[in-house]
Design goal:
Largest sheet: 4 strands, antiparallel
Subcellular location: Membrane
GO molecular function: secondary active sulfate transmembrane transporter activity
Helix content: 55-70%
GO cellular component, one term: membrane
Protein name: Putative SLC26A/SulP transporter
Oligomer: single chain
Main location: membrane
Number of helices: 22
Mean pLDDT: 86
Length: 554
Amino acid sequence: MDPSGSTMQTHFVDINEDAPEAHPVAAPPKQSTLHRLKVWIKETFFPDDPLRLFKGQTLQRKLILGAQYLFPVLEWGPKYNLKLFKSDLISGITIASLAIPQGISYAKLANVPPILGLYSSFVPPLVYVVLGSSKDLAVGPVSIASLVMGSMLQDEVSPNEDPDLFLKLALTSTLFAGLFQAALGILRLGFIIDFLSKAILLGFMAGSAVIVALQQLKSILGIKHFTKNMAIIPVMKSVFHKTDEWSWQTILMGFSFLIVLLLARHVSIKKPKLFWVSAGAPLVCVIISTILSFAIKAQHHGISIIGKLPKGINPSSTDKLIFNGTHLGLVIKTGFITGILSLTEGIAVGRTFAALRNYRVDGNKEMMAIGLMNVVGCTTSCYVTTGSFSRSAVNNNAGAKSAMSNVIMSLAVMVTLLFLMPLFYYTPNVVLGAIIITAVIGLIDIPAAYLLWKIDKFDFLVMLVAFFGVIFISVQYGLAIAVGLSILKLLLQITRPKTVMLGNIPGTDIYRDLHHYKEAARVPGFLILRIEAPINFVNITYLHERLVLSLQIL
């Protein structure tokens, strides 16, 4: 095993006929097939040995530990105190101010009724508090999952011509996404999401951000008839072929609030202590634009408004779930893709902030929590939700101490649903478009892309394929092509493993690559090779050829 932790094998080949005979090495102890199978299953599916906590415990203690494992709230809940609540209260109210306008905006991105964005910010966070293990994750709708769900479903069903069927498909897709996510956690198959590498996510999220931002040109310019296609070329054609629908009043309002939101974001980036500026800016813009829209009767000046939103908390939606008909394959496919994407984002965000605050997030628990959150959500008029990076960052900066901040946010959303919905009647759609553009800009990480170029050119190529595939073809095909390239790279590394000739560092027992370390010297009479992959049937012929070639060179 190489000191770096990667799986490597080093072979010493005697190339000197006069060299002394090597001492034989004893064979390892014989093990039964059943024993080897048990070891393989444990190392593959249970590397963290979750049952270790139960060893040597009394039955009562085992039951308590089992309940705490399934419901993490039982572990931290009894230790909760007023001091922690004060911090969570502030952070909860802060993220609620961001979640309310973002929820409405992302629902429109998914082509579902705007009220579903608020429903999805009320019930799912309450489920996550009970089942989740992250202290910082702020749960709710996110831009990428909303975009993917909306674009995949509208390929077959128009949200304008048949909104009721579209809503049913969205809720059913959420159910399948939740079932798939929970199954990954229960069966401990989380390694599947590792196929979405950092390079793929960088390119995919940047491409999706561009597509999402371009889609908001419909709202920013006031265009009424816009293409359903998500690719950049049809979108730009639609923008410039509909110049007669552009509304200068809408453009003026849209760019004014967009500038305000971008300035607020810039201030918070430059001075992190002023995180509340960017967190509160969307809600402030919604309030100001709503008042302005009401005062000037914006709907009479070509500025579209949200209109009436129903009051009350989430209604049951079990009767809207459909499991037959011609669209069953569509909802399963949509649920699978949105489930993978939202799960990847949620776990990545949770682990990021856990590392910053030096605590551990259990990936399998998170999969079960996010999955069950969506299963419950789809029965209460919620579409797919996960941990949001922007809201989680605000939650962390606001000083959240536990998942209780999600409860505070949910209560704030509940008050909004019960009493404040009529106030959103005059909210201009153009402001929601500006909020979305500001939110997705943060998904474009140029410094990370540059670092990827410096480290691994092939991964940089994968990133570019994901980016251009998303913006020129489609979200799902761009992602699929990038994943295919990554798997191809993995197969190449297995079938054509790198072989390195090693030499001894004088005066030590350390062996290093002869091409990287000038002071390393060959050991007389031996050819020392390091094979940077396991030896198996797919690479044995290649390795034999490399070995013969190395011997000929010497």
